[in-house]
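S1.2 Input.
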Amino acid sequence: MSQPNPPAPHGASPDTATVTEARLTVPRPWALPTGDVLAHLATGSGGLDAAAAAERLRVAGRNELPEPPRKPAVVRFLAHFNDTLIYILLAAAVIKALMGDWLDFWVIMAVAIINAVIGFIQEGRAEKALAGIRGMLSADATARRDGRWVTVPAAELVPGDVVRLMPGDKVPADLRLTQAFRLRIDEAALTGESVPSSKSTDPVATDAGVGDRGSMAFSGTIVSAGQGQGVVTATGVATEIGRIQALSDEAGSLATPLTRQLDSFGRVLTVVILGMAAVMLMIGRFLHGMPFDELISAAIGFAVAAIPEGLPALVTITLAIGVQQMARHNAITRKLPAVEALGSVTTVCSDKTGTLTKNEMTVRRIVTPVAEYEVSGLGYAPDGGIHPVGTEDGSPGTGDLAAILSVATLCNDAHIVQADDGTWSLVGEPTEGALKVAAMKGGVGTAGGRRVAVIPFDSAHKLMATLNEAARTGGGEGEVSRAILVKGAPDRLLERSLTQRGAHGSEPLDLSHWEEVLDHLSSQGLRVLAAARKPVRATTDEFALDDLIDLEFLGLWGIVDPPRPEAIEAIADCHAAGISVKMITGDHAGTALAIAHEMGLAGPDAAVLTGAELEALSQEQLREVVRDVDVYARTSPEHKIRIVRALQSHGEVVAMTGDGVNDAPALTRADVGIAMGIKGTEATKEAAEFVLADDNFATIRSAIAEGRRIYDNLRKSIVFLLPTNGAQSLVILIAVVFGLALPVTSVQVLWVNMVTAVTLSLALAYEPAERGILRRPPRASGGPIIDRGELGFVVVVSLLIGGATMGVFYGVAATGVDIEFARTEAVLMLAFGQLAYLFNCRFLTRSSLTLDVLRGNRAVWWSAIALIVLQVIYTYAPFMNLLFESRPLPAASWILPIAVSIAIFLAVEGLKAVRARSSRHTASLKGGS
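S1.3 Output.
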């Protein structure tokens, strides 16, 4: 038991000390003796009285994380109109309203409003993330007030309160411990440590990291064993959890590569559209003397034709379809644009505990004086076996193994339980759970014996001992034997041992041999525990620590938090896809490096950068080395954010995975945050863009492949959609420049845009993945959404479809029919030209003159049918004739648009063949040079 320091003198009680904010703030309390902390806070072992607590509550504020001010819903909704393309649409709608053209006005406004509604529904992640962290605070606490222990709301704790901790309690505030009786606290959610931290009252170094502050208990962590008392040193935003919330606020959320590209594309397109509209106005006015109102209508028609107003809906729906596909792979998406961002990831920064590993401690090696054994199976399920190293199967059944396994199960307070669904779980501490499972694998149980007495684990002595009784082997009925069974730190047990259990009984302890074995196991990243025993008289009923001498040493266990087997394969696939994987953990450097080697994450000469070493580096120095280091150990939340920022400064698209609250700020800062769904904290899930439903790192591999597929399909959809706008705007531009009749009106332009966007464009979202999608490097995140070659492709196809539309319109109009009839034929030509072009876009890098173009994606055929049905309604429904000024066409009038569309398909295939030949020629020249 750690002895508390003397309490502060009563002269420093709150009655005689002035309560100020400075008085209630203790700098680095973990490095100060408890007496100094109590004196600084003007409190004592008796705690505070009610009046003093009330005054301090007024000064320090409630022990809560404040909710940030939230923008009104109206403001958040209107923010979705903040887009350059939408500005042009709204301006066009306003002009149409001023001109009294209300049909065009409402059609344009409907497009803009639908886009805003979709965006409004998708937002809200940051508020939920902070709410998740606030929910980690405990509801009540046991504090000493007015000289007695009382239950008070945790929100009313103040600096200077003395708080009691019991097993299972959630720590209500940051405490400087004043008493610690075998106290162990699970800080995994805060530090990433998979083993509960042993606590004492002894001061630690001033520069100790969060995971090494053994004299502190932090708000939101869980007491796993023992008892303790502490004085509150920080509440609310001043706690470690409060600091993490501030980091989440300050980290900021970056735009994804897709949103950056779409913003850039929109700005360029806006300038081009406005410039061309201005030129068109001047030509129409000064060259042809067209009426001003007619010119304004034509300019709006041009703008409406040129703006891909279906693009926001296309992007949103394509990403939403990707969300459904990812959900089938156990990746739950919280924010739509992140679907595409995942496909452009160049670096995955992963937490170790529970992400790359199972977070289920497992005995991997057992070394006795007779032999070394390998233990198969992972986690808490008792599947697997124990066999000597170098053999395939079978347990030797000798006494050395049975003896050490008896200690594993009898000197143990953990229980392994099986649920109704067949899964196994641990009740107790992870290390003891690992020993219990190893005993189960070796067929050793607790039946036939009983525990007589126990010395619980104490961090000061680093051992646990039990006095156990069992039936005497070979004795008569009722005869029993008793023995002391001990497990603990190897150095503590070796110094208390006199002999070891050899093949033929007890033999002298070979200390040098065990030191070599200990070094060997530790170098493999294993956590090593030792076992020993001591026979006693059958009448012995109690024992003390002083009795633990002259022990018989039984051997060592090598324990590890094992890597997920599927994660090893996933890391290899990530490397093949050009994606680097970095481990960022709060665990010790040796353990982290051993796991990294085992998983193929780091090479044999890889170095580890610890939190203390990272702290000594400037951001520029970190930037220079960040891409060369694959393993970071003993890190804090601030370190994780610095690492992510350093990687992003190199243009890396960073995905950060994690499960503890300590990961939330870095997940917020990363381009893509990925949380564990089963073992992840609520704060982490709410901060992430993705949640892995199965906590499986391998799911990230599937999600990255899906993200790449989605981006490919999005590019196909955009390359497909743009020629619609290009052809329509070209038709209007040429008509005005040459003083001709408009082949289509502005409202007809909107019709074609909308029906092709919601039918044909969506078909490409269901395209299967391209061949070798995970064998190509990540795409560059800074480039345009379509490259120059594709832009030229779009221009040529626009000329083809636009030229065909004008040819059909003026050709039909020349036969003497009215202009509405000819325009109906022109709209049909635009729609069917797009349908033919859809089949070209299914394969942008190879020919569509193959039977594959007719199969593999049933959505293509359903969308084609939907387009034809909509065009039939547009052509023949009386209300559509009234709204859009269309006219019914005789059946023979459908032949010309269909024939010209087939010609467009063949022409585009010829263009693709020329592009493919040019690309191969360029590649061969580069290869030759």
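S1.4 Remarks. The first strand starts at residue 140 and ends at 145.
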